[in-house]
Every structure is written in structure tokens, then in C-alpha cells.
Amino acid sequence: MREVTGIIPVRYASQRFPGKPLASILGKPMIQWVYERAQKSTHLQNLIIATENKRIYDKCQEFGADVRMTSPHHVSGTERVAEIADTLSSPYIINIQGDEPLVRAEMIDALISAMLQEETPMATLAIKVDDLSLLEDQNIVKVVTDKQGYALYFSRSPLPFQSSDYFFQHIGIYGYRRDFLLDMCQWPPSRLEQEEKLEQLRALENGHRVKVVFTHFSTLSVDTPQDIIMVEDFMKKEHHD
Predict the structure, then answer these.
(1) pTM here?
(2) How many domains does the chain have?
């Protein structure tokens, strides 16, 4: 098995929710939930938290995580992941979002399996959604693929336009070949990336394929304090089930 390292990028500053990684969810900081759930992956050999903040660093050390300090000047989580990846020899890197406390090991393992089988430079996750009322939601990123499961486009707009049955929602967990990740972070932001505010479009605009791996597991990103309530409700139900 080729070495695969998971990196969880987190920062303290957030316009809508400052200190979000340290927000308590059923008595644990959110970043601890993400780390412990990702740790259950059977395909990850290493798992690292990357942060620019001393308070987050100290809290992660308290619960025993491998945590590294990064530059405070990164404009994206991908750049933070790349800074750590540049110090590693691991040929495969998984970028696990620090605001996804419902992430499951099965999702990470499926992404890794696809990367190793396809020899693709970049892969990500998506889930089939039947609720068409969500198609117009700009906070939900949509993706369409070709018949081999490679992304044709990602958008915050309805995609496909006027879908009559279902669409695929993008889940922001990414797998990269390490050398590709480091190269991509050196490319200038692309036009569509800036207009959609979606970093993955930089790869497509530069002519690279992105494998989309479909999962049956949904997640819930925490963007506001109100989202914590929904996550706690989901976790309580998950525990009882």
C-alpha cells in the first residue's frame, strides 16, 4: 500500500463564525470530532492537523493529535495543506475539511481506493441528491461528470439546468498526488475559479482531470453557530441508531 497522509487544514479567523474549529459539539471541540472520525480510516497511514493559530494548536495537542503550525498568510485551506505536504515524502495527500464533523472513514477510504486504482492526479467526493429544492442553493456546490466519472464542471448554480429528477452534490474532501498538489498551488487563480469561488476549477481549467467518487454518506459543513445544533441533532440520532 502506498503511503497516504490526511491533512486537516483549520484556521481561527472566520467572518461568520470566528474560532469555529474550537466550537463545542456535544462537549468536544469540532476539530477533535473531525480528527477522531478521520482516524478511523483504514487507508490513511498518517493524519495531521495544519493551523495558523496557537489556541487551536494547543487544543489539538491536548487531545493527542499530530498538529503543525503553518503560515498565517494562506488564502485557502489547500495552500495550508500544500505547505505541510511539501515537508512530507508521502506520495498521496488527502485534504479533509476541518468544518466537516460528520466526515466518515468510509468516505475517506473510498476516495483513497479510487485514487490508487485510477492513478488520477486529483479526486473528490459527491452524493446523489433527490431534493430538487436544494438545486438553487448557492451554498451547495453541484457537479456533473462524464460517463467515466470525471468532472466536467462544478458550479454554485443549478447544474444541470432544470434537472427533473436528481443532481450530484459535491463534498469538499480532496485527494491529490503530492506533486500535483504542489504544482497546482503555484498556478495563478483561474477565471472560473474566481467567478464560482471554487478552487477545484483551477485543475479543470488547466486541462487536468478530476475523478469524482460517489458516496452514500452525507455530511454537514459548519458555517454558522446555528449549524452546530443540526450537527448535534444528527450525532444524537446516529448514536441511537
Answers:
(1) 0.94
(2) 1
